[in-house]
């Protein structure tokens, strides 16, 4: 049932190209310049009236929402807030009938996320669920459902569900942008074309797993490490950090690169591994200056970037891992795959139960 893989997690990491294709299939027109999402169940007028969006979820699904915010704000220019479901419920969120609440849940059964959905509905909001399980409680109660077609996810650590959520958010952002006229048809076509290449580009990363494994064996000897990045890279850093903690039990923190010097830089000492995500051209120089700050304190830095920046970065870091070139908006769907593999191989090197990490359950149906 593990299809020849040693663990479900590794199998599911390898199923991502298929999960991307399945989640995109049938959701764009033949000309490749329009997204089709009848399941949103929202009229043009309702979409034009949306004043704010709240994305609510837990754990990895929350982290997918961080990328979702970036996508929607860039494409549609609607203000988006991210909330952790267990916080949202109790903070008296400001929800109106012009709010679109998006709940994200692989299982569709997470108790706090379900409660957040009800909170949104009680305030008159339309609640859209992005979920991987069609018959789940969240899918049944939501006003509309955008299904991710990742297939069953068995490993406790979520991988293909997260990346399918990113695909779903991209499609959603493009669709809202079409209706609200914030992106032209050629712009939409360009993004859709780039999305079609993602499955093959994931394969390219998977083919380099030995290099990631070697690095994972290096970091497995450390007690603490840091992930840094800006923008989408910061969102991915948060997911990379969660994944690593969850299955390797190595302590790590994800930091917005520019925020380090406001306190956390004090923790950087000789030999501490820092993984710097540096895929965003527009802030690359800024990220490089943050990399230099940690290097100056003795950190050992691995940068994740595109080929064109490799030589440049090698002047300030110890190692570079190259991911295939895509649009800045879409890099999360590629860079995160390298971090999933990193967490997997670190856990493996430490001899942990990769698919069933201690203290954790696949579906959290208690509050
Ligand atoms: C981490 C992980 C958890 C879940 C979280 C929400 O790898 O899997 O953080 O993402 O418990 O679960 P769902 O998405 O089922 O609501």
UniProtKB/TrEMBL annotation:
It is found in: Cytoplasm. GO terms for biological process: carbohydrate metabolic process; fructose 6-phosphate metabolic process; protein N-linked glycosylation; UDP-N-acetylglucosamine metabolic process. The keyword Cytoplasm applies. The keyword Cytoplasm applies. GO terms for molecular function: carbohydrate derivative binding; glutamine-fructose-6-phosphate transaminase (isomerizing) activity. It catalyses: D-fructose 6-phosphate + L-glutamine = D-glucosamine 6-phosphate + L-glutamate. Keywords: Aminotransferase, Cytoplasm, Glutamine amidotransferase, Repeat, Transferase. GO terms for cellular component: cytosol. Residues 43-182, 215-357 form the SIS domain. Its main location: cytoplasm. Homodimer. Catalyzes the first step in hexosamine metabolism, converting fructose-6P into glucosamine-6P using glutamine as a nitrogen source. This is Glutamine--fructose-6-phosphate aminotransferase [isomerizing]. It comes from Paenibacillus borealis. The chain holds residues 244 to 610 of 610 of the full protein.
